Amino acid sequence: MAGKEGVSVPLNWCVFNGFDSVLHDTFSTDLELLRVLPNVYAVCIARRNSNPKTIVGGFFVRTTYTDDDDPEFSDALANAMAAVPAFREFAPELHSFLPARVSAPLDITEDEMLKVLFSQKLKFTTGGNA
Q: Do 76 and 63 contact (CB within 8 A), yes or no?
């Protein structure tokens, strides 16, 4: 997922069915590529205008972009999201990103990523403002 000056690579994805079940998978990516991507984000996908927030899915992404002052950050997340066929049901105009920068080793497991995404979902869904 390349932008003008950066790269973003999704690591995993999940679609939540409330708190009852989750559909999920991971991506296989060249380890050498992952080594040069310094920033890792756990990104929740929220339905706009829901209170409390309704988190419908999420993904981990390694990227050269940051959420600090990078105008292309949202586009990078949208491109990473577009790589996931299961996310096609989430119309961009009806959903927004809730990214959280995290520390993650190169060999982070799918279970570890899902645990973080569930934690973020719980934080947002129970009225916490992450």
A: yes
Instruction: Determine the Cα–Cα distance for residues 40 and 38; give it in Å rounded to an integer.
Output: 7
Nearest to 10 by CA among 124, 125, 110: 110
**Cα–Cα distance for residue pair 79/1, rounded to 1 Å:** 6
Q: What's CA 42's distance to the chain center, in Å? A: 5
DSSP secondary structure letter of residue 69: T
Give CA–CA dist 12/68, Å, rounded: 23
Tell me the pTM: 0.88
11-60 pLDDT, tens digit each: 999 999 876 788 898 888 888 999 999 999 999 999 998 887 899 999 99
